[in-house]
Design the sequence.
């Protein structure tokens, strides 16, 4: 299977800009979200929130858990 020259070099753009792939993909996602109109915008904003759970351990047993919600700035 042959790949076109453009497809073979497509990953080089984010590397040439000095970005990691994660930063590049986050930037692309921001651009897409900024272009959305309602109701798709509300659904995308709801998916931006991040939740994580931390558990305090003592003597190898869970003592307490805390669920934290991180809302991106500007949301």
Sequence:
């Amino acid at each position: 299977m042959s790949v076109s020259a453009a497809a073979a070099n497509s990953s080089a753009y984010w590397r040439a800009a000095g970005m990691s792939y994660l930063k590049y993909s986050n930037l692309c996602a921001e651009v897409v979200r900024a272009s959305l109109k309602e109701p798709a915008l509300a659904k995308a904003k709801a998916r931006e929130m991040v939740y994580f759970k931390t558990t305090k351990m003592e003597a190898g047993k869970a003592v307490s858990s805390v669920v934290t919600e991180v809302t991106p700035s500007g949301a």
